[in-house]
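Cont'd.
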Amino acid sequence: MAGPLRRRLPPLPLLLLAAAGLRAAERSGGSSSAMEELATEKEAEESHRQDSVSLLTFILLLTLTILTIWLFKHRRVRFLHETGLAMIYGLIVGVILRYGTPSTSGHDKPFSCSQEDRPFTTLLVNVSGKFFEYTLKGEISPGKIHNVEQNDMLRKVTFDPEVFFNILLPPIIFHAGYSLKKRHFFRNLGSILAYAFLGTAVSCFIIGNLMYGVVKLMKLVGQLSDKFYYTDCLLFGAIISATDPVTVLAIFNELHADVDLYALLFGESVLNDAVAIVLSSSIVAYQPTGENTHAFDAAAFFKSVGVFLGIFSGSFMMGAVTGVVTALVTKFTKLHCFPLLETALFFLMSWSTFLLAEACGFTGVVAVLFCGITQAHYTYNNLSVESRSRTKQLFEVLHFLAENFIFSYMGLALFTFQKHIFSPVFIIGAFVAIFLGRAAHIYPLSFLLNLGRRHKISWSFQHMMMFSGLRGAMAFALAIRDTATYSHQMMFSTTLLIVFFTVWIVGGGTTPMLSWLNIRVGVDPDQDPPPTNDSFQVLQGDGQDSARRNRTKQESAWLFRLWYSFDHNYLKPILTHSGPPLTTTLPSWCGLIARCLTSPQVYDNQEQLREEDSDFILNDGDLTVTYGDTTITANGSSGPHTATTNLDSRRTKSSSEEALERDLGAADHEVTSRGTRLVFPLEYNA
Amino acid sequence: MAGPLRRRLPPLPLLLLAAAGLRAAERSGGSSSAMEELATEKEAEESHRQDSVSLLTFILLLTLTILTIWLFKHRRVRFLHETGLAMIYGLIVGVILRYGTPSTSGHDKPFSCSQEDRPFTTLLVNVSGKFFEYTLKGEISPGKIHNVEQNDMLRKVTFDPEVFFNILLPPIIFHAGYSLKKRHFFRNLGSILAYAFLGTAVSCFIIGNLMYGVVKLMKLVGQLSDKFYYTDCLLFGAIISATDPVTVLAIFNELHADVDLYALLFGESVLNDAVAIVLSSSIVAYQPTGENTHAFDAAAFFKSVGVFLGIFSGSFMMGAVTGVVTALVTKFTKLHCFPLLETALFFLMSWSTFLLAEACGFTGVVAVLFCGITQAHYTYNNLSVESRSRTKQLFEVLHFLAENFIFSYMGLALFTFQKHIFSPVFIIGAFVAIFLGRAAHIYPLSFLLNLGRRHKISWSFQHMMMFSGLRGAMAFALAIRDTATYSHQMMFSTTLLIVFFTVWIVGGGTTPMLSWLNIRVGVDPDQDPPPTNDSFQVLQGDGQDSARRNRTKQESAWLFRLWYSFDHNYLKPILTHSGPPLTTTLPSWCGLIARCLTSPQVYDNQEQLREEDSDFILNDGDLTVTYGDTTITANGSSGPHTATTNLDSRRTKSSSEEALERDLGAADHEVTSRGTRLVFPLEYNA
């Protein structure tokens, strides 16, 4: 990832190193400077106390949010979602901080000293013979100098944008990848990719151009007081095209809305975050170099496209590779005997994806997304039962905390951010543009996709997708990334308002909208009560069943069938303990390698696998089988049920265990549900 | 907590804020400064890449450590413990970084400018008309100025000491409190408190005085090149008196060594960390103000003692209060229906303890320890089954990562820390002093304690405790906290060597030592196979059983019996869903309040409770009952078994469930084991 955005990228170790920021003058040891030292000490103590208090503010905010979320869930209030709630609390605290705290300037007067060269990153200052080290924090626009020390508290609650990109977003995005409902996702992969790539590009381009019109208009009316380039408009288009999966999907999950619609929305919003990040960086790379900043430059445009493709594929590879490495490590060591080590390894490897991508100049967040998908697809199968639940739970908690933090911070930022520029024309223009931009990609794309799809995307689905395009954490993070110039400040303020508006309106309106559009609710097959044990065995080789299979087969495009058979025959057996033995799928001259790579467990499963083989290439059945055989244990988390790795066990289940399993399944855990589903493939007939 | 240490305390939000540190000059927008901007941009990009690489180094180090730990555990290698291993890997990487990387100075020349006043925390520098903000990083001793920019990579892998105190230690300490094996801990509470408080104070005093002798000797020989005060020696005594629970206890756990010895060692090392922190801060508060720095000043001494007591009790209260608040919140809301919310709340409340204590001027780490104990004692009972396992697992992972990070960092620091002062005389003196200091507190204290104890602390236990006094993370964190002066640098280098030596020798020698001292191994009652269901019912009101009770009763001191009955009759019913109803324990005139505060579940349990009431006051049985009734579910984690809150259920358990439970119990989970243990109180006869 090149361009000026680059230099704002994650100083992660700096986060740690820079803790030194507060370390005031070191203890000088003598007694002559005792008074002076005491003063500095008191100041530092005060500053430290303020730091603690400001973090406490956030924690209490989150605590309050959690308690209110509980109250809302308890009372089944649906007109306001938890993220909307977090924002409201943030707003309130922001107002209090803004207008309720005295401006505590005075003791912290800035010192001016001139220097003719470009700024150094380290500064040594000689104060009455002692040397002090200073580090560069950033440029301050001349008009803001008097603001620097205006309000300590406001400054303390204003985080650096990079915190969002490097600390808060990775767990959210990883969790999205890791908890992907793969079956429905892959069934709709073509459409999802179309929406995410084509759709986001179209939306970005349309919004960018419309906003350029708005900017022109503003210039005519005299509402624009500084430069606003065409690339800035396009950047705004990219920023605001990132739709958020959070709110709508939480409601969908709660209401058990249609799974295909869920998959489409989820897939689109997750991938389009990645697309929007990469898009915005490549737009920044395609920067005005001369004065003719808004002329169309074909070479620069193709360079931008090249950068986009390069960063995207690089990040994708990075994520996939670390996922595969983790899968290999967990397969070929017996790490699963020590779940704690395994979880720690999993966590570290996933985090290193982010750093590795950043170190190589790719986009960490995108790499983490694909790493999550790969980990869920391969590594998850090799993990011990305890690690499976532990990793899921760990990332779930991190995701929950990070997300709510971002949303309450958004509320706070509306009042504490000191460089807002609200332009009514721009804001109204932006709302119209995002509406048109979304309409211009949902409806035409759906029409085109419906030409090739067997399961058409119905009008009500299209309207729902149109409605669900709310903007959230990613748009905010992208917008706050660079707020140095006039245009970027205006974009940030507008983005904030759009996020507020869409989260509150869309979050509150989803339930009425679903019923108004007559979209099936409460039919999530993942949650269907499984039929009794008998019906499963009867259905195994049934006619109905094979008819279903053929139907599903025809649905999949040849490309995906090809991928599935490759994945099933080679990747799964190499990377996990499941799938057919490589000795049967590889040509005979690779016998030795095949024998080395195939895990012994596979042979145990082979008998079983042959029976159900036809199931595999379709609808991601192979994955589900692997889940299926540990259904109880995936719930029973900490129990030492690793012995139950044989598929046969589920046939010999006693009915009491069956009942237990049903109970547990109802408790949620999509993974389990997935398992339960394959075991009882009745849903297709329902 | 007062004194100069104060000002070095946690700039936590700064950690986040300071991410800005890398943000070089903001985009200026014009085209005139394009070249200059490009240069800054490239630099920032390079610096960011280095940041990523240095963090990657640590992650790969940890990954390598995890894989090797697995190999060691797999092969049952015990001569080197995982923490020792992490240090060795750290050492190797440190050597590579030190001697393998070129010194990349040059582009980062420090700029000197004079200022006559004391240093400001913020500095504005005017560079050709643009303003840049700088923040104070700390003082640099004049001799070290040329070192500042010497090696970027070395500087990048050198974390700020506060990271250890504010990010890495809290999860470790909280986990220690949260996973305390309460029964054995409370049975030995008197001895543990004596070792922790008296023992640490004695050890600190003896080591401090011996070291003062060594320093005098060094001055005579001419080996001392700068000041070394008496208070510095005492501080060294406090730092080095913090014994580490990690290594020995991990081995004890693995070998199932004697539980009472385990409880003594664990309790001592956990509490003595807290004592050492507070002790070192109060020694710093008792600072030389005039020139007669090593004269004994009674007023200052009592001030120090007052500070010690104030900080300790304040931190204790802070931790207990947030624990109690969390317990009340989780009791009076139905948060347990939403385990994710509950876990998040639990996590946030526990973290806020740390911040609250820091904001009030107490010691966050100590507060977090007592918060952990309170959370485990009260809040844990109110949590949903899923949250119980989730919180345990979450903190276990955090603890594991933080601990291994610290130990590999210690290895790294031996070569990358640039201010080492190794003095052979001081080092040898220190080894002798810690040996004598430990001997002087273990043997006399044990003798005194044995006068009052029924279960005497045997000679072999005393030798084992003497041997197990290894120094670890806490000593390191305390020593690295202030390395500004000559004496502190020498103390830091010596501490590092002592940690290395004790971790390697003691870690490797524990197993031989246990067998040499004939200490029982493999007898952890927590892991005893439970007897069959029948024997349990027969034993219920048995004579043998009540004999056991009387014996245990006599063991507890009256103070603890008082506390137990207060805890059982009032605190437990108020804070949790267990214990007898308040309507029966409170006087009748509090009837209304009692009815409000008692949870409805208690009445369901009452019948059951009355039967076993005599069991409660002894050996923390009340707690165990509450665990006992959810034994399966505590294992089955995610299952919705909350309906099983009636104790009677365990009587009607089918034998298949019984078998399941036994399986699960064997998998570890001390909580479960505790439950299993009370349910079958046979162990005492074994």
